[in-house]
Inverse folding.
């Protein structure tokens, strides 16, 4: 692969809970530039306004797609107030850390506070808006100085959805549910953290509308976000380093997810089942998403493929 002599940017290294490594170099290759060209010239679809569906019906549709394909493991839950309480305790203990501290009190309190929930039972906050967005409020609770991934818990407070009441929101919900299903260690590199959520938002759209119209809309929204991220990394007045870093995360995850999804929809039923069961293995904590990518020989380099990408915008 020919690497162009353009700015090759190092992604800043940030310590983010639950991930081992962050960022590599980001080469601007001919392939990536061709793909960017395709992304920039794709048509922008306007949002469909409300359909007659209620929010409950939409969420049920997402749940039906997930139960058809996956086993949804229970996840750790506590309210926002409870996770703030744990964070306060965590902070106080860290500030007065002694070398022989066992933190039993902290882990006892945490055990009492955190409960298990089906991700589809996480509290949901919805408000209608022109913009389709989703967010899952997540707290990483553990003693930072111990810095042990296995001692940190990923704990969910609630899911927030905004947008019109239309099936695109069902896909966004599938994205957020997937975030909840990936356990700590299920994704080692932070830049791939959006990969399975983006894959599953496409899967939900693909399953809910056999005409392909919904998938087209979901892909168009994802492309719009990709273009925005690409513009931001070239911005002469950049946002904070962390914001820029997040744009790299979305760019890489979007391209890798598109590659994996392309493989999925072109596969026969048996191969499709294998791809899904490998994703289930990631949800079950058997191996990280990186192993799945390795198994299918999916890399950032071969995901920068304008021909494949064009099929999905
Ligand atoms: Zn996400």
């Amino acid at each position: 692969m020919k690497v162009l002599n353009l700015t090759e940017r190092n992604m800043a290294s940030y310590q983010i809970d639950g991930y081992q490594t962050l960022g590599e170099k980001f080469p601007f290759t001919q392939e990536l530039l061709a793909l960017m060209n395709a992304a920039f010239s794709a048509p922008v679809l306007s949002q469909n306004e409300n359909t007659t569906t209620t929010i409950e019906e939409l969420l049920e549709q997402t749940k039906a797609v997930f139960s058809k394909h996956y086993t949804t493991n229970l996840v750790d839950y506590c309210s926002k107030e409870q996770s703030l309480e744990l964070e306060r305790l965590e902070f106080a203990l860290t500030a007065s850390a002694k070398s022989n501290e066992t933190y039993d009190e902290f882990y006892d309190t945490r055990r009492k506070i955190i409960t298990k929930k089906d991700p589809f039972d996480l509290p949901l906050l919805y408000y209608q808006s022109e913009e389709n967005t989703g967010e899952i409020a997540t707290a990483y609770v553990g003693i930072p100085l111990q810095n042990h991934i296995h001692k940190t818990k990923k704990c969910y407070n609630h899911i927030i959805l905004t947008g019109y009441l239309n099936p695109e929101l069902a896909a966004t919900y599938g994205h957020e549910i997937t975030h909840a299903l990936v356990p700590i260690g299920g994704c080692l590199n932070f830049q791939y953290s959006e990969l399975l959520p983006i894959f599953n938002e496409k899967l939900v759209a693909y399953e809910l509308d056999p005409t392909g119209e919904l998938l087209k809309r979901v892909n168009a929204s994802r492309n719009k976000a990709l273009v925005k991220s690409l513009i931001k990394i070239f911005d002469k007045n950049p946002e904070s380093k962390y914001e820029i870093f997040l744009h790299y995360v979305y760019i890489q995850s979007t391209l890798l997810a598109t590659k994996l999804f392309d493989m999925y929809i072109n596969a026969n039923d048996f191969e499709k089942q294998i791809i899904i069961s490998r994703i289930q293995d990631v949800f079950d904590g058997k191996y990280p998403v990186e192993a799945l990518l390795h198994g299918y020989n999916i890399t950032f380099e071969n995901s920068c493929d304008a021909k494949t990408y064009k099929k999905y915008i």
Remarks:
- The chain has one domain: 2-310.
- Residues 2-310 form one domain.
- The pocket of zinc ion is lined by residues 175, 179, 194, 197 (CB under 6 Å).
- The chain has a mean pLDDT of 86.
